[in-house]
């Protein structure tokens, strides 16, 4: 099987497994796991943040951030297709008692003016706006990437209104590699950052939350309450350290492969339109004569898995285990549909 459903389907490489096996571990609730501490300080340093917290998932890091930044009844500004709103099970209501103000956005990317317009006036009728959250790259936006100047403009609005700015950076390294922006420059724009190790970086498990020492101290308390305090998770942290050292630059290969898929799709009459490929995600619409189920069934009959993002649209995601042969086979199979 060739799996284009997501960059979460990867398995550790032999070298990553070896790093995991050799990890020095301890009880992290006691603060004894040196590998976790090393991962947290490495990631914090990369993004110019004071501290980090290693967690089980990106949903957990996002949800902890929302909890620490808000009080019940508050409002969080985000894009309508954002992961925190659409794919976290209503977690912001469940965990934090807050609601989302969702904005229509350009492939998931907000702009400073719409953020400004969405901030509620100081009036007891309105929920208090207490957080703005951006997603970069944007999943539903087809791996779309923010420019640094757009982020800076949003940051400025947030500062003027004393609002913290959170980054759902599940695929932030894809954004950094494609835009050439440094982790430090990106880190400077946000009060908190969630980073997934188990997406493009190819780790089996894990995400990091980054912020100030004070913020991370509070985050650690919330993680414990959620049942996320863990023990010898240094075996997983070792994969994270390995990935931060060896799997970032190679993301450019995933992006090139996604571009090859885009190029093939552009030649096919049954493809209505494709979201311009910027990173490792390809989302396209199928013209009315056919639908996503038919295309997926055809692909599956050639041992290829992909995912449906709507009745008329399909997503391919390239990742560390996608080979050039996989791309050739996919392109040929698409051509034969
Ligand atoms: C995958 C993802 C997350 C986190 O997902 P988990 O499966 O909980 O690790 C958060 N945001 C975005 C945009 C994602 O794609």
CATH topology name of the largest domain, in short, is Aspartate Aminotransferase, domain 2
Separation of the first and last Cα atoms: 18 Å
Secondary-structure-based class equals: alpha/beta
State the low-pLDDT regions, or none. none
What is the element string, with H for helices and E for strands?
A: EHHEHEHHEHEHEHHEEHHHEEHEEEH
Ions and ligands: pyridoxal-5'-phosphate
Domains counted in the coordinates: how many?
A: 2
Name of the top-level CATH class of the largest domain: Alpha Beta
How many strands appear in the DSSP assignment? 13
Radius of gyration: 20 Å
Strand content: 15-25%
Strands of the widest sheet, in order across it, are 2-8-7-6-5-3-4
CATH superfamily of the largest domain: Type I PLP-dependent aspartate aminotransferase-like (Major domain)
CATH level-two architecture of the largest domain: 3-Layer(aba) Sandwich
Number of helices: 14
Helix share, percent: 40-55%
**Overall pLDDT:** 98
What is the 3D shape?
A: globular
Walk me through this protein's architecture.
- By secondary structure, this protein is an alpha/beta fold.
- The protein has two domains: 236 residues, Aspartate Aminotransferase, domain 2, CATH 3.40.640; 86 residues, Aspartate Aminotransferase, domain 1 (Alpha-Beta Complex).
- 42% of the residues lie in helices and 18% in strands.
- It is built from 14 helices and 13 strands.
- Strands 2-8-7-6-5-3-4 form a seven-stranded mixed β-sheet, sandwiched between helices.
- A hairpin with a 6-residue loop joins β9 and β10.
- The longest helix is centred in the last third of the chain and has 16 residues.
- The protein is globular and about 55 Å long.
- The model has no long low-confidence stretch (mean pLDDT 98).
- Bound molecules: pyridoxal-5'-phosphate (PLP).
- The site of pyridoxal-5'-phosphate has 13 residues, from α3.
- Pyridoxal-5'-phosphate binds next to α3.
